[in-house]
Amino acid sequence: MLITGKQILEHAEKNRYAVGAFNVNNMEIVQAIIEAAEETGSPVILQASQGALKYAGIEYISAMAKVAAENASVPVALHLDHGTDFKQIMMCLRYGFTSVMIDASKYSLEENIKITKKIVDISHTVGVSVEAELGKIGGTEDDISVDERDATMTDPEEAVRFVKETGLDSLAIAVGTAHGPYKGEPKIDFDRIKSIKEKVGIPLVLHGSSGVPESSIKKAIENGINKINIDTDIRMSFNNAVREFAKNNPNAYDPRKLLGPGREAAKKVIAEKMIMFGSSNKAWK
Hints:
By secondary structure, the chain is an alpha/beta fold.
């Protein structure tokens, strides 16, 4: 069965590793994530963006995640990524999501606190954990876009107030990463991660992690990151494998044969990430 994001992240924090939160859009990606988690022995978070729910339907996403969790031998959570709509978040609670993210980072600190606390109060009543964002992470995530010059780093002192007044379970911070493909190597503020971690003492989340070098990922984990979001790397590996198969097999029309290589390519990338994050073999502990 599905467990909460809080349960998974508290273990990661205690044992100083990070759990991968991988975006799902269809059955093949769900299968790739679960198979990679099983093979590496990793706890895992399946997460769906508002765009994914619009594409696949919340009923399908929820049902696939529940079936995956019921048949998995590793801990699995189902998380809403970048929720901005109150009704959408309430629908996720109704359909069995065990973790939700409220992203009110575009508002003032006071308004962000107000909106986040409301979601926390409701979600905690039904046993669902909450992630929120402070600061603005650059790039594009579905229909949410933040220009690089408008992306602002998370202030450690504001983080203290934010966590204290909202009671959230995990905090997504802006420390130099961005959503989508990178044009160059991102410059992550590791000292900022460490400072925020020491001050708030809850699991921290790194968004925009696809394409970030392994050395930077590991250093971020050492300084306090416990959840790492991956989406672009999955899409690119899936897309490249499908394109390559179609190029070499122009007469193929069976969707199973077309999408199968994409699933295998995504699975390989996801397993590599799990090992990189230090979550491999942690499911049994």
